[in-house]
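Preliminary data (for renewal application), FE2/S2 (inorganic) cluster complex.
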Amino acid sequence: MKLIILTLTLATAAAFTTPFGVGRASTAISAEASKINTMVDLDSPKVVNQEKLEAGDKKVYCRCWKSGTFPLCDAAHVTHNKETGDNVGPLIVACAKAE
Ligand code: FES
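Predicted structure:
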């Protein structure tokens, strides 16, 4: 009977073992590793930006969260895509000129 219990315990532990460890610690590491934003206003509960465009304006906004000029794109996505094989790029917004 003891052998069966020991076997079940080891099998259960093996089932919950990941490359990051066992149990809750691995869950915390996984959540941290899956964050998209790793550098912009990290103390804020939500990063929100609002801008007004004037007629004839054109802005290029970052969607990779790597820009040093966030929310504007500084082309950091190019390096990110080369390093990771990702395909992210900016959002370009243009406001038509008034007639
Ligand atoms: S730097 Fe993020 S999309 Fe260009």
